[in-house]
TrEMBL record:
<keyword id="KW-0812">Transmembrane</keyword>
<keyword id="KW-0472">Membrane</keyword>
<feature type="transmembrane region" description="Helical">
    <location>
        <begin position="9"/>
        <end position="27"/>
    </location>
</feature>
<feature type="region of interest" description="Disordered">
    <location>
        <begin position="71"/>
        <end position="100"/>
    </location>
</feature>
<keyword id="KW-1133">Transmembrane helix</keyword>
<protein>
    <submittedName>
        <fullName>Oligopeptide transporter (OPT) family protein</fullName>
    </submittedName>
</protein>
<feature type="transmembrane region" description="Helical">
    <location>
        <begin position="33"/>
        <end position="55"/>
    </location>
</feature>
<feature type="compositionally biased region" description="Low complexity">
    <location>
        <begin position="71"/>
        <end position="85"/>
    </location>
</feature>
Amino acid sequence: MPRPTAAQLAYGSFTVIFSTLAMLLLSQTSSGVGIAVIAFAALALGLLVAMTVPLPRSRIVAQSQPAPAVSAAPAAPTAPLAQQTEEPVPAAATRSSNAA
């Protein structure tokens, strides 16, 4: 189980303190049972707030991969430009078999 972060501790503590004060002032209770119920409710609310604070994301470090080997001289073309032209496709080969 990971340790709580500083933000979780701060938010949870502030929630417990301020919710306890607000509930005590609004309810105007003076009995021990009422104060205990309010204290328990404030602790539960503080725990809920502290657990819902998002945890910091772990850093993802990109793994460096070796760069592909690059030769110093540019690669020579495999064929002259005159021989790299495409041959035309016969018209009969491009027609669909069900075309009229």
